[in-house]
Amino acid sequence: LPMIAPSFFASGFNIFLIMQFIRGIPRDMDEAATIDGCSWYGIFTRIILPMCTPILATVGIFSAVNQWNSFQDTLIYMTDSKLYSLQYLLYTYINQASALANAAKANSANVAALASAATPTSIRMTVSVIVVLPIMFTYPFFQRFFVKGMMLGAVKG
User: In the list 84, 87, 104, 132, which could disulfide-bond 71, CB 3.0-4.6 Å?
Assistant: First the structure.
């Protein structure tokens, strides 16, 4: 629960981003909808909210990256090894590889054979790729919201 609950609360930076984006929406859109007889709820759901898809996608990306990189939360809150985050598990693998390399330097024949199979640098690079891949696949998913939102916000004249 301590890992999931903070992700539902908005950060001050995200609220500031959304507020500034909404302030940048032209008032002409609101006035036109009011003249057409739309209520405040209708203005929000039919005009403001669809135009906010780019900023909501941006905040979604920021939240996803923040939750993905929550290394210290696992370090502090988790006691069950089945619930460790990927970041923490990869950190332990890197530490184990470094300890194995240090033991190999102590001239132990068995450990030297094990350490030559995977160097700490190769494990570090593999971990870097594993950590970056899910976030790299997140960006194209949110890309369509950016393009769609830019087309909705056109005011002529």
Answer: 87
Rounded CA gap, 96 and 89, in Å? 11
Output the 3-class SS for 30-71.
Answer: HHHHHHCCCCHHHHHHHHHHHHCHHHHHHHHHHHHHHHHCCH
Cα dist. 88→76, 102, 131 in Å? 11, 21, 11
Helix (H) or strand (E) holding 9: none
Q: Say how many C-beta atoms besides its own lie within 10 A of residue 99's C-beta.
A: 13
Q: Count the helices and strands in the chain (H runs, E runs).
A: 10, 0
pLDDT for 49-75, tens place per residue? 988 888 888 888 887 777 777 778 788
Contact 91, 71 (CB under 8 A): yes
